[in-house]
Each structure stands twice: as structure tokens, then as C-alpha cells.
Amino acid sequence: MFGAYPNTVRVRKEEVIQMQATRVLDGLTPRAREIVQVARELLEREGPAALSMRRLGDQIGIRASSIYEHLRDKDALEAALISVGFEEQAELFARAVQGAANPILALTSAYRDFARRQPNLYRLMTERALRHDLLAPGVEEAAALPLLHATGGDHEQARAIWAFAHGMVILELNHRFPGSADLDTTWRKGIDLFAGQPDADQP
Amino acid sequence: MFGAYPNTVRVRKEEVIQMQATRVLDGLTPRAREIVQVARELLEREGPAALSMRRLGDQIGIRASSIYEHLRDKDALEAALISVGFEEQAELFARAVQGAANPILALTSAYRDFARRQPNLYRLMTERALRHDLLAPGVEEAAALPLLHATGGDHEQARAIWAFAHGMVILELNHRFPGSADLDTTWRKGIDLFAGQPDADQP
DNA sequence: GACGGTGCCTAACGGTGTTCGGCGCGTACC
DNA sequence: GGTACGCGCCGAACACCGTTAGGCACCGTC
Predict the structure, then answer these.
(1) pLDDT greater than 80 at residue A74
(2) CATH topology of domain A13-194
């Protein structure tokens, strides 16, 4: 992410829209889509430990072994969930920057919102190396494009902002900040550093 | 972390040293210490999936069920590993700031080194909420103190730097940056923003 | 009407964390 | 010196996990 394209890339909004149009679940049968959807609800409602093939089968009304008729294995199921997550991020982020006075602030707010609304999916999307061989192609890059666009194509800055945002989000989700911490302020100050008045050091 | 103490705390170096002296493993029997040590090697050598009670027993030469004579359960084992990790961080960080021209830069370098040298332990320490009821008391705070000290007691700044550092580290460990990314540069630029010349915007 | 594929089933394998009952051995005490 | 105790181990078992193999019923197509 933030480096898959050469530094000189110029991203037009049309390209972003087009990548969003590539629906992840289109490559799946209706039954597989249903399974992925139920899996997502189960994951978010009861946590990662509850997302077992047997529990998932129970939710649908079939045996665990029958799931393998529709999805190769659990890795493929998780990859589908992650692909859906990236797709929704891409759409969310593209919408967030539309007409935003401070695109980077708008993007990081949307990033935090996404993670807080579906913490278990967000963890799934970030806590391990990605299986690019199982993900829907291009979906990760599509989620990253709005931020790269907001930094004017500066991969360096985009990566730094992403690292800060992910660090803030995942430490918050894992309750690693004390309850007394004013995270809104920490976010604002941090983002101001990255995206704030860049002309401050100009004469 | 970065908030367990009131903002006005003044940390003397002697206090840091003293907290380091509290050895985590002292509360364990010799056999339990051995198990934790073997578990650490197994975790780091073969990854989190290999850290099972049976595999661990094999390494020691006993049955999995015998481990429960020495450690309450797997949560307690993991908590011991995490406690050891924090303890080593505390010592490493305290050493890193000694005589450093730029303490924050020295600290974040040590932070990254720690994570890269024992990625699986670092993941274990950060990827879930901490079981404070199982951790050695004070060990998390001890690891956080040097950074809080380096920011002059500014919890806000300490949290932001921590979030950036953790984000950079965990995304690097999980291979989420492209191979072409120059992470050294990203680190330097990011840390400069947080800790760099604060007199840049002075006349 | 037979054929083939689809989608489910049961059963099983090897793995996981954990508990229970038993057993041998060394130490402490009478 | 004999006895009691408890520590540290063991085997067996339970409930769960991901996954595979083989069978069976249905349904559309030739």
C-alpha cells in the first residue's frame, strides 16, 4: 500500500470510481455470498473466536463440512471478508474527501469511524500479512488511493499518516490507552502535524 | 499507558532503574521459569501457531497436562511472556535515552529494534487487550516511562509518538508496506514532525 | 427415463486447551 | 525406621477446531 504505483502517478477521480465498481462478491455464488455475509455478522457480533466453521454452519442451518462446497477453506472465507472490508473502505474514503476542506482530516476521521464501527473486521484486515493470492485484485489499492490522492501523490506522507492512524485506531480498539486519555485531541494534534499548515516553515 | 500517572509527575532516573529491578519471573518457580523461557523460544522460532501446550510440552520433555502444575493456563503463560517483554523493553528504552542527543529518536529506534528482533513476542504484546489481572504489576508502565520522560511529561505527545511508532512497526512486521518503501526515511520524517525542531515556527 | 452435477449429510482424522484420577518418589515427622 | 504427605508427572478423556472422504437425494438436461 502507498507504493504500488510510481511516485509520478496522477490519479483521476474517475479511476477511483471505476475501481469501486468492481464488486468483490460478484465472483461468488449466491450461497457463498450469503455465507460470507453471515460470517461477517457472526464475527462482529461474537468476536474472532466465534468465527468457526461449525458455528458458522449453525447460523446458516447446515453442517460445517457443507460450507466447503461454496468456499475453498477458512482462509478463503477470511479473504472474502477482508476484500469486502477494503471495498467498503474505498467507498467510504472516496465519499469522505468529496468537498472536504481538509481532505486528510476527513479521511482519518472516516478511517477511525470504520474501525470503531466494525472493530473485529478491522482487526482481521490488519493483524496479519495479507493473502494477496486470495484477495479480490486491486481492492487494497482502491482503499489506499484516496489518501494518496489527498497527499498529492506523496507516498512518504501517505505512509506516515496511515501508520499514525492505524496505530491510534488499533491501540484504541485494544484498550491500550487509559480511559482518561482524550483521543480526539491526540488525533487532532497528530493530524495537524502531518497535514497542518505546510507553509509554516516558508518565509 | 501514557496516562496512568498524573500529568505533573516528575520521573527521576532512579525510579526507572528501580522498576526495572522488579524481575517478572521472580514470582515463578524454577520449573515455571524454564517453561516460560522455552515457550518464548518456541514462539519466536516457529510462530504463534506453534505455541501450543502439547508442542511446548514436547520441547521440555513432559506432557501438556503437566504444564498446568506450574502455570495456571495458557493465558497465564502468555501473560508471563508479555510481562517479560515489557520488562526487557523498559531496560532497553532506559538504556537508549542515556546520553542521547535526541531522546525521542533514540527511543523510537530502540522500539523498532525490539519489534524486529522478536516480532512474534511484539505481536503477542500488542495484538489484544492486555490482561492486567495476569500481568506483573507495573511492568507496562515501566516500559512507557522513558518516552513519557522524553516528552517532558506530555502524555498527549507521548501517545501520538507511540501510535505512530506502533503503526509503523506493526505494518512493517505484517508486510503491509511495499518492498520499495524506504521505511527509514518515513520513520525519520515522522519522528521529525513529532520531536523535531520545535523552534522552527519561532521567529 | 437415465445421467450428471449440486448441495447436503455422517463419520472420521489429527489438532487444540483443559480436567481428572492415579502413581511414584522424596521429604518430613513421629 | 516407618509413615504420611505432597509434588510432579502420566494417561485418558471432554469439547472444541479445520478439513476430508464417501454417500445420498434431488433436479435439470439429454
Answers:
(1) yes
(2) Tetracycline Repressor; domain 2 (1.10.357)
